[in-house]
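Re-run with default settings, no changes from the original entry. Doing this only to confirm the output is reproducible before filing.
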Amino acid sequence: MTTVVAAVLLVVVGSPAGAVPGVSGAERRSETPVVSSSPVTEVEASVVSVFAPLPPDALPHPPECDTLSYLRWKSVDGPTESADADRILVAQPGIFEGASAFESVAGNTVSAAAAQGSYVEFWALDRRSNCLEDHTGTRAALATGNLETATNYYYGGAEIDGRTFDGFADGGRTAWLSNQGIEQTVRDQYDLLRFELPDQKLRKEKVLCGGHSLGGFVTGYFAEWDFDGNPETLDDAGYNQCGGYFALDTIVKAGTPPLVRGIPDLDLPAAVADPIADLTGLVDSALPVLALPAVINPETTNLLAMAGVAARLDPGGVNDLVNVLPNNVNIDATLRALLSKDALMATTGNPSVRTLYATNDAVLGALLDDNSQPFGFLQASVGFIGAQPVVDKAFPTLPGMENLPVVGSALGDAKKAAPALYGDPNTVYTWNDYDSLDSSPQTARYTDSSSEVTSISQLARSLAEPPLDFTEWYFPTKLSTDLAQSSSTAIREHRLHRDGVHRNPILTLQGTGGIELPPSGRPGDRPIVVQGYNHLDVLTAARTQNNGLPEVVSTELARFAANPS
């Protein structure tokens, strides 16, 4: 323990490969295989953790937050050492997203590359803030095969292996996140790459950097960053850590994610930008975790993981999750906001969402499917409701709003449906997977096989199984506010290579139902529009599509890995 404390106090951030005095490389790193039920058996996964202390001036934080972690996928027949792989794709997650969100696309990409004759690895990074999460309940539920193991732990005070849930962190427990912005995020990626792949020339040759959603903008900043503060030394320049970039329903660009096409970032003078940054700094300190009273907060993002566990353990079971959820304001308001069929139901709670009879698959589908989930950044195309009656969903949006410019982009492009009958045990809502749609007029009114691309069973597995999460509990507010502070002195002084994105080729993959973004404007960009995909589908789409062809995003990533130039 004394050695670890000394290392934290003595660490020199700029030292070679993020060296930690008193701690050897072998002591810093651990790698543990991931047990998975994935059908892509020719690919193996592991979780890698590297001891990388925060700087000495960091606010007080748990010791486990001095570790960086990522999920590593490789071919079972590929080389043991990452440095011997033909290419390594390193991915930054999106907002409210953890490493396991990449589980499907990573495995499919590694498999597709092997079929093309090359061995690639896929690394999905986890943000430091995820160190605050407690997955004891979901892990134990998978082991026991009983969802109540998790719900008793999170809501009933049950003990698992001598541990009880300490509640969702807030107040002083999250204050340190007010410093976890873009500077620390890109530094973490840089230090992790240097530790795992010490040879800069090898990194430049073999690493492709990218991300999903917000991760594309983090990658843009990474490309422009100078990590030693000296623009004359280029080995540390962000763009020299990667040989190319990839964007998954995003663009690789430093700056504010654009809300409207054609409106560029404003390069504000420091006299204007710095006072704005000071104000947002006050927000970051007051609200270090980006959260809302309902829908988006630590408790509800964990709720999605438990919905995945329920569907993973017993897809045809009825109301396993809904029946054991506590009646509190947050969960009740979230269920109303996401699942009410109209404003009257949302306002009065009558009928109650909890009185719906639905299989665990159908509950997960209602939460994340593009024909139900109202917010585009949380949508996947995972099939449709079975033969049970539905109506047009008229809350929190109105029918037809998905077709409006700008607003429609935030809602996805799919028509929304909601169950019509509540409280009838003789009507149990079921779910048809992406490749098992029925031929009824009702289904045809809302969707067809060309726009359904993700298997709900695979989505449930990704939410439940990997040791690093799919849905992030504690997203640092500072990371989101920093993206809009590109002109502030604190960030501008690190953005010393404004042509960093231009210096490498880019593969941009965007879904037709994803988040609408302008073209990157980069001369080396290869833009590909993927039909039928929503925002999450670029990560979760099934290996084989309804047209009988291999999944598009992973196929194109494998091709790009083979020849990025």
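The mean pLDDT is 92. The first strand starts at residue 29 and ends at 33.
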